[in-house]
Amino acid sequence: xxxxxxxxxxxxxxxxxxxxxxxxxxxxxxxxxxxxxxxxxxxxxxxxxxxxxxxxxxxxxxxxxxxxxxxxxxxxxxxxxxxxxxxxxxxxxxxxxxxxxxxxxxxxxxxxxxxxxxxxxxxxxxxxxxxxxxxxxxxxxxxxxxxxxxxxxxxxxxxxxxxxxxxxxxxxxxxxxxxxxxxxxxxxxxxxxxxxxxxxxxxxxxxxxxxxxxxxxxxxxxxxxxxxxxxxxxxxxxxxxxxxxxxxxxxxxxxxxxxxxxxxxxxxxxxxxxxxxxxxxxxxxxxxxxx
Length: 291
Fold this sequence. Notes:
It is a single chain. The chain has helices at about 5-25, 55-70, 135-140, 145-160, 200-205, 225, 275-280; strands spanning about 35, 45-50, 80-85, 100-105, 115-120, 125-135, 245-250, 255-260, 265-275. By secondary structure, the protein is an alpha/beta fold. It has a single domain (about 30-290), classed as Collagenase (Catalytic Domain) (3-Layer(aba) Sandwich). Helix 2 (about 55-70) crosses helix 4 (about 145-160).
């Protein structure tokens, strides 16, 4: 039998093994494009600015931070830890501050969104600052005003600023806050999807495998110099007409991503978590124009 026949057969066999193995290694691919914080060492600590106005929201942020700092329950590690610091962006605007993620809550109005995460990008991939907003207009309503839905949204919105996207957007629970399971109605008492799962930490390790030559993360040594840098508040707006272009939207309409280009050459990316009501009539519509 010709030698090249054996080589060809071996190649087919190896390809078959690769195809069989593929599902087990492709599960954790929920990064938000290739966006990541530049840093020179792992692990690194990301400062989360607490601008929250209620004890309840503060407790949800504290729990989310604790959960993202606890990969050990899955017998793994994480390149990223969070620490909560006094916020420097009070009010509805919730301006992003360089080197940090600012977290806010306010009555942003009947605009259709529950949570909104923003990141600023330089060099096409490096996150330099972020923010996460919780819309009390909806969270004050009986449907959304429960501990598990608040935890779900808080956990998810701050993690978008880490560089994570969703594991699932079809409404099913993957038992991670990075899905779009709804902890409302008959599920209001369910703790499913209120915390990160093992695949979230797996993805963080993938995102942050390589190191950078510079850092964009605020540290004790860098905070003072970062504070001197002007933040372009024109990037931070509650006017959805200034979010830029709609870049992607989930099939059920619950998740949308927008992109705008700024005068300084940076980009602002916005992840929007829409309410059930916002998507009922037209899941594929751009929901910022529905209100």
